[in-house]
Amino acid sequence: MTRTRHRVWKYGDNVNTDVIFPGKYTYTIETDTAQLARHALEDLDPSFASAAQRGDVIVAGRNWGNGSSREQAVKCLIAAGVHAVIASSFARIYYRNAINSGLLVITCPELVAQVETGDEIEIDLDAAQMHYSGRAYSFPPLPEQVREIVDAGGIIPYLRAKAREQ
Amino acid sequence: MARASQRNRVKPGDIVVIEPEIVLSHDNSAAIAAIFQQLPHDRVKYPERLAITLDHAVPPPTAKHARNHARIREFVRQQGIANFFEVGRGICHQVLCEEGIIGPGMTLLGADSHSTHYGWLGAFSAGIGRSEVAAIWATGQLWLRVPETMRIELTGKFETGVTTKDLTISMIGRLSSDGATYMAVEFDGDGVAGLSPDSRAVLTNMMAEMGAKNACMAPDEVTWRWLSETLRRTRPEDHVDRLGFFRGRALFPDSGADYALHHHIDLSEIEPMVSCPHNVDNVQPLSAVATRAVDVGFIGTCTNGRLEDLAAAAKIVRGRRLRRRLIVIPASSMALRDAADAGYIADLIEAGATIGSPGCGPCMGVHQGVLAPGEVCVSSANRNFRGRMGEPDAEIYLASPAVVAASCVAGHLIHPADLSI
Ligand code: SF4
């Protein structure tokens, strides 16, 4: 049984990396977790950084994370405790950066259409389903290897752990 | 992708693990090597699959750049990487095509966003991040999501003075810079056959500016002729075998393939286009901005620095004097040599242009012609983001090489057909 329960923060279409993590900090804040968390979604939702709790999920519309390839736009959400981003679609480089940094990303337009901020959803990764208000929503499952990358916290930690096992 | 992931079939949205046949990196190879060194793998798994070019800051403009190159050479030596191309050979995307490192039906992942380029040869190629390249160096593998496909059907012929650069800019203006996010863009239709090899690469190269993962067109007679003539020069020892290998690998679209989107473009309706500051999708017809004064022109880059581009510029400046500075940087040593043989370089120099050594030049603002505050540049490159070529308040207009050359003759944006003298 791997169902986990999460509170939703809901946003719209075309949220770009500048409002997820402002460009003005990209060369001053790189790895400091507390600072990354403090500026997460600063220009999108000023209430987010102070009210987000570990395990929350972001649910958004089309083209989440378009724009710059800055990795902080993924790392700031991880630092803020975000468990997953669920969107109708993702900008390509954001999607890759997320998985390779250990942030769970789920494409599921059907669920996006139903939920609002403050709702609670459940995620069952093994079954590749989410549950909300008595209904199940399937999403394309992550293949074993990609899921292992997310679980390990990103591609570099994943490869290190794998080499240690051998 | 099915082949590279050893599956029978793949469908859009599937995530597959592929073993790319070529992994590209350039001046960023030392930074990737530093990430690679965090991994316990001492050796690159398949050194024969790596291709490294020194191209972004060549010859090195500062001691720091020289040290970076020296570190890369050391890594290349230690790991026994044969596909290594030195300073002056040219820009990665051009060199790998000319050298037959990649060809029809092959797969390439590159630490460069314009890795969509190789689709003009019928290859699958996409850009990835540095950590991911380090991971492939270590394991030979990487995960990818199978893209949906956008089909762009080209019919008809361009009017005189219109190029694939105008087509690309017009498409990006219409579909916007995220119009093809995560998609494969496939070009087909009877309009493709009339496009020259040099001009085809403009299309696939710049699909990166529309968010595409990769772009491709099926190889045809034009492709095979180009490969045959080029490989004969760059690999005289095995060009026949290499061409045979590519013929065996070539892939063509499934008949009845599913396309997520389908656009049709009549080439005869495309007019000369310009991307205005500071976004590639901020597009205007040249006729609407033709009085804009320019300070400097730049012809080069992986988008428009090939022989055909240098020929177009030479034809316009021949017998004229440039009123504005014009920096010309051939995309490869082969393009430079051929342009010299054909007399284009002499034409350009006579008119007052400056010739730089093959490489990226000022495209990303490192050297060989970066812009001062307030300067206006008309460029044959692919990006005009704020600050891309130097100072943040410099302005960059993107256009075809002929328009760049004509604008440097007139002192303002202009179509060559409108030059009076
Ligand atoms: S020429 Fe410009 S766009 Fe092309 S690889 Fe070099 S820096 Fe990148």
Range of strand content of chain A: 15-25%
Please tally the helical runs of chain B, counting DSSP H or I stretches of 4 or more residues.
Answer: 14
Largest sheet of chain A: 7 strands, mixed
Strand order of the largest sheet of chain A: 4-3-2-1-5-6-7
Mean pLDDT across the residues of chain B is 95
The low-confidence runs of chain A, each spanning 5 or more residues with pLDDT under 50, are none
Cα-atom radius of gyration of chain B: 21 Å
**How many separate helices of chain A?**
8
Mean pLDDT reading of chain A: 89
Number of strands of chain A: 7
Seen as an oligomer or otherwise, the chain set is heterodimer
The Cα radius of gyration of chain A reads: 15 Å
- The percent range for helix content of chain B is 25-40%
Keywords:
A: 166 residues; alpha/beta; globular; B: 421 residues; 32% helix; binds iron/sulfur cluster
How is this fold's topology laid out?
The complex is a heterodimer of chains A (166) and B (421).
Chain A lengths: L2 E8 L6 H4 L12 H6 L9 H4 L5 E4 L11 H8 L4 E4 L4 H10 L2 E4 L1 H4 L7 E5 L4 E4 L2 E4 L5 H9 L2 H11 L1
Parallel strand pairs in A: 1-2, 2-3, 3-4
Antiparallel strand pairs in A: 1-5, 5-6, 6-7
Chain B lengths: L14 E4 L3 E4 L3 H8 L13 E4 L9 H17 L4 E2 L6 H7 L8 E4 L13 E4 L2 H10 L2 E4 L3 E7 L8 H12 L8 E5 L8 H10 L7 E4 L3 H14 L4 H11 L11 E6 L6 E3 L7 E3 H4 L6 E5 H4 L2 H11 L7 E5 L3 H9 L2 H8 L2 E2 L20 E4 L15 E4 L2 H10 L11
The site of iron/sulfur cluster (SF4) has 11 residues of chain B, from helix 10.
